[in-house]
Design a protein that fits this description.
The protein is mainly beta. It is built from one helix and 25 strands.
């Protein structure tokens, strides 16, 4: 009897041991997150910010499916969606596969609430086991961007102008008003860029001053920022130049961009000059072939001063449809060499009516609107 009880006791003990071993303790296999990196204080309008969390898993990093974060503002109830962090070595992450998950997060702008925010971090493995959750807090402080207005160009006598003449260029003073809602001391930099009539820029920032001393500024700390530019900044081209102004505060928050246009002209402007029209003297109204016509064009202020070249056709009775047919000097559509001053056009006389002597009247105009003298080419239209 005792022997049977002993065997029963052993069997029950073994069964309990087997059942215990078959019961999986999943708490030993869930991912774990730790060591968050986040800002203590952020200022609005200052761009992206960096967050990071480290993660590990007993089965290895390959078992981690996702690491996520969410922003919350307890004071207002504002709450973002859960978003993924990455360990890919890109987008702000330093090294792929090192277990540090990070992201550059879009910063706060003037429309966002200030105060204390929460960042929550969590991770899941491939079997959807949830890690521990980490909660950290940071502050968002108000930061108003500088406000810029009233850009001006002043001549050497400090008289305001919107037109500058290359012939008379000396020094031009450029001013702009800047206000900083958070206080004058928050203004860090004020500058502008110059864009030429063709849209190009020299990619140079012209720094402006409010110290009452530098580059023509007359009064210290009055909020009117000034700099002086020389003639070489504006005399490469003629036409409408765009000056684009911007400011930033000490935290790098940028103002809006405002633009001031100035027309740069030539006081003693001379119009383009036409010479040497070439082309066939006779064309057939039954031919579909293209005939090339050229005219040489020059300008006393340089080739960059030429705006357009065209001809207008007149029938044998002197009437015209008044259409302008534009020639090009781009090395295309029959033009042999780009920029050589020989303007070209290809035309077909197929179906021209009536037959007889037509007059082609050539013109050129510069960027200031000045017209050349006309130059005629007579062409006989036959069957």
């Amino acid at each position: 009897m005792l022997k049977k009880l002993f065997y029963l006791f052993v069997m029950v003990g073994l069964s309990a041991l087997i059942l215990t071993n078959c019961s999986e303790d999943t708490t030993n296999f869930i991912p774990e997150i730790y060591s968050p990196v986040y800002p203590d204080t952020l200022y609005r309008n200052t761009g992206t910010f960096y967050i990071e969390i480290s993660a590990m898993d007993p089965q290895g990093l390959q078992d981690i499916a996702v690491v996520e974060y969410r922003l919350e503002h307890p004071g207002t109830g504002e709450m973002s969606q859960w978003s993924s962090l990455f360990d890919t070595g890109s987008g702000g992450d330093e090294a792929a596969g090192d277990g540090r998950y990070s992201k550059l997060v879009t910063g706060f702008d003037h429309s966002d609430s200030t105060g204390q925010y929460i960042i929550r971090f969590v991770a899941y493995d491939v079997d959807n086991h949830r890690s521990n959750e980490i909660e950290v807090t940071f502050n968002v402080s108000a930061n108003n961007v500088p406000q810029i207005s009233d850009p001006k160009l002043l001549d050497m006598y400090y008289e305001e102008t919107d037109t500058v003449y290359q012939d008379l260029l000396d020094s031009i003073y450029v001013t702009v008003d800047v206000e900083e809602p958070d206080g004058y001391g928050e203004i860090a930099n004020v500058w502008f860029e110059i864009y030429r009539p063709d849209g190009s820029s020299n990619d140079y920032d012209y720094i402006m001053f409010d110290d009452g001393i530098t580059n023509g500024d007359t009064t210290e700390a009055d909020g009117i920022f000034t700099t002086k530019i020389s003639s070489v900044e504006l005399d490469v081209f003629s036409g409408n130049f765009a000056l684009k102004f911007k400011a930033e505060d000490i935290r790098g928050a940028p103002s809006q961009t405002i633009t001031k246009y100035v027309f740069v002209g030539v006081l003693n402007n001379e119009p383009p000059v036409l010479a040497n029209v070439t082309g066939p003297d006779t064309l057939s109204a039954s031919s579909e072939d293209t005939a090339l016509f050229t005219v040489e064009v020059s300008d006393p202020q340089g080739a960059g001063n030429i705006d357009s070249v065209w001809f207008q056709s007149y029938r044998p009775d002197g009437s015209s449809n008044e259409n302008h047919f534009y020639l090009n000097d781009d090395g295309e559509y029959g033009d042999e060499t780009s920029g050589d001053g020989v303007y070209t056009i290809g035309i077909t006389s197929y179906g021209a009516d009536p037959l007889g002597q037509w007059r082609f009247e050539f013109w050129a105009r510069d960027i200031h609107g000045s017209l050349s003298d006309s130059l005629d080419k007579y062409v006989q239209i036959v069957e």
